Amino acid sequence: MLSNKFKIPGYVLIILGFVLTYLYFVVNIRIEIPVLAIVSSFTETKFFTIYKTNVADEFIILSLVAGFCMVVFSKEKNETDSIKKIRTKSLLHTVRIDISLLLFFTLFIYGGGFM
Asked: What's the pTM value of the predicted model, to 2 decimals?
């Protein structure tokens, strides 16, 4: 568990993610920089290559996931044992759902749609 101090930076990252989402879809912002790709298959399949691409969507995902994780995994100011028990049960339930979805998609989704 993270300290309670991580909640505010988490909320800032979440707000930043939503602002970037708005800019990406409504204003059509493009942030093109060279990136390292372990596997790239746009025109042809290449391994360990550098190419220039729009990374705005990656910034959106990273800021939202990091922000939500910081908020969710931060302790409350006055956290009791019952809250810890609820958090543990919720985490276990989430892992079960995540594994079930991963297995389902692995079995029934093929090609680029899997990504």
From this structure: 0.73
What's the pLDDT tens digit per position in 18-37?
999 999 999 998 889 888 88
Triad 46, 50, 51: Cα angle to 5°: 90
Which pLDDT tens digit goes with each residue over 37-63? 887 776 777 788 888 888 888 899 999
Instruction: Say which DSSP state 77 is in.
Output: T
CA distance 1 to 4: 9
Query: Contact, 20 vs 38, CB < 8 A?
Result: no
Q: Which residue in 26, 21, 30 sits closest to 53, CA to CA?
A: 30
**Beta carbons of 3 and 10 less than 8 angstroms apart:** no
Tell me, rounded to whole angstroms, the distance of Cα 68 from its chain centroid. 8
CA distance 76 to 3: 8
Residues facing residue 51 across a β-bridge: 35
